[in-house]
Amino acid sequence: MSLPAIFTVLLLLLPFAAPSRDLADDKPSAYEAIQDFNFPIGILPKGVTGYELDKGNGKFHAYLNGSCSFSLEGSYQLKYKSTISGYISKNKLTALTGVSVKVLFLWLNIVEVRRDGDDLEFSVGIASASFPIDNFYECPQCGCGLNCNGGQVRKLKIKVNPSVSSI
Predict the structure, then answer these.
(1) Are 37 and 132 within 8 A, CB to CB?
(2) pLDDT tier at 15 (50, 70, 90 boundaries)?
(3) Angle, vertex CA 117, rays to CA 58 and CA 61, nearest 5
(4) Cα dihedral sign for 138, 141, 145, 151?
(5) Model-level pTM?
């Protein structure tokens, strides 16, 4: 077979060799989507199975296989329900549902997250706390948080801000 004939056969077979792409495959992951709003991926735990986002009003739903809980060094315990909902816009998550934090002996819903420069401020409505954004460059894992490999536990850095209530 001549070289042009081989080349022609290869060109004809190429569409069958390449995997077909569904238009849904072009949808960014939930982690990529929150980065579009200037949030780090670590505000969501590993294992988000899907999400919905209304780009018109910012209403979103993120889905996990089930509920998820873990502790972070620095005395914070977090719980995520299987569905996390709220409204997202640049540097702001509001009307948040499905995420709670244990403060002393009480579980409180985190209702709002705001990014202010290199800090994230988490609000439970009556109080809030700010943390440096570098605490959230890595996604925590359900069950073990950021200490899943039995390695060194990374302490959560807390930013003290006298003008903001602390939880």
Answers:
(1) no
(2) very low
(3) 25
(4) negative
(5) 0.74
